[in-house]
Amino acid sequence: MTIPMDRYPTIGNGYCIFPKLIILYCSRATGKIHRSPKKMLLLQQVAALDKGQPQPVPVDFLVSNKTHVIVITGPNTGGKTICLKTVGLAAMMAKSGLYVLASESVQIPWFDCVFADIGDEQSLSQSLSTFSGHLKQISNIKLQSTRQSLVLLDEVGAGTNPLEGAALGMSLLESFAQDGCLLTIATTHHGELKTLKYSNEAFENACMEFDEVNLKPTYKVLWGIPGRSNAINIAERLRLPSVVIDTARKLYGSSSAEIDEVITDMEKLKQDYHKRLTEAQYYLIQSKRLHSSLLNTRRKITEHSTTLRLKKLRDVSDSAAMARSILHKNVRELAASAKKTSQHNKAIESSHVSTTNSLHTASDDKKPTITDRSPSDAKKFDKSSAGRFAVPKVGDTVHVSSLGKKVTILKVDSSKGEVEVQAGIMKLKLKVTDIQRL
């Protein structure tokens, strides 16, 4: 919510003049649209104020549901009254369906009426002093306000004895809090009203910030702590004689100065708290952003590792399939080679058998029979045949005349008269008659 502090001039009791809509009228003679001459002057005044003037100071009003009375304290010319006017104006704009002057969306209760006691209502004709004028206004507000009303009270208890005014102000605010309106916002300089918050949870303190270094108000609202009037400091800024300032500080007393120091420490603590809270919120947002980034990175890493693992599994599966294919191919090639070698061996064996048979036939024709041989020749023949056709044993080394090399006996099948031999890298099955023992 934006409060125009020094942007626009004031008239009467501190009321602020806002720029209004420029009224246009149409000339019947020419049919052209012209600006109202009276509004041109106001437009020029507003344009002149915009040049080199300080910008409006935004303030935040955050009121909890349990709070019914807000006590705003702080220095003179600090912006307390304009805060009341701003809240009242925002409430009336919301009731009228207008946009509220705020940078963010605004939530405002529906007030059936807005009552305000702002300014001096003294009147000679009605025999009203400043104090009595305020009391008359507050009495009318008390009678007409409901539980859905907004009440704005400026300088409660002012215009009379400070002690009596403070007691009357405390009583009025407590009555508004107990059975009065929905929300009451009051400004005051009485220190006793600042203590209501600590005895009644329906009360809340707020103060207008004051720059102790430059002795100037900042027009910012600090919530939760009471403020100081800083009358002596403001008088010093307004160049009141130093003798008067020093005497006022002495009369003010050390006890009051200690209270002001406590309030100052509270203000500094509040400011430090808001600063740290802002930093914490910033770091919280950053941490949430980093946490989200870390979760996203973790998800990507998990997906990447899963993709790599699946890729490795596919690669291993493809390599295994390729290896199986190569092994099957080699087995088929070895089987074909073994089959070809077996056929070659059979061909050699059949050729050897036919050759042997022909040789035996020829020898039978040329050589005498056993009966015709001498006993010594028969004996030699028996020994030669026994050495040639004796059944070998596994592991024996024999000579294969058809191959022209030595082989090793691997297996002997006596029933078939066959042996299995190892000839280099080949394994062959031969007849016993095809081998000759060494």
From TrEMBL:
Keywords: ATP-binding, DNA-binding, Hydrolase, Nucleotide-binding, RNA-binding, rRNA-binding. Residues 351-361 have a biased composition (Polar residues). The keyword RNA-binding applies. Residues 362-384 have a biased composition (Basic and acidic residues). Residues 336-384 are annotated as: Disordered. GO terms for biological process: mismatch repair; negative regulation of DNA recombination. InterPro entries: DNA_mismatch_repair_MutS_C (IPR000432), MSSS (IPR046893), MutS (IPR045076), MutS2 (IPR005747), P-loop_NTPase (IPR027417). Residues 149-165 form the DNA mismatch repair proteins mutS family domain. GO terms for molecular function: ATP binding; ATP hydrolysis activity; ATP-dependent DNA damage sensor activity; endonuclease activity; mismatched DNA binding; rRNA binding. Gene3D superfamilies: P-loop containing nucleotide triphosphate hydrolases. The keyword RNA-binding applies. It holds the Pfam family MSSS. SMART domains: MUTSac (SM00534). This is DNA mismatch repair proteins mutS family domain-containing protein.
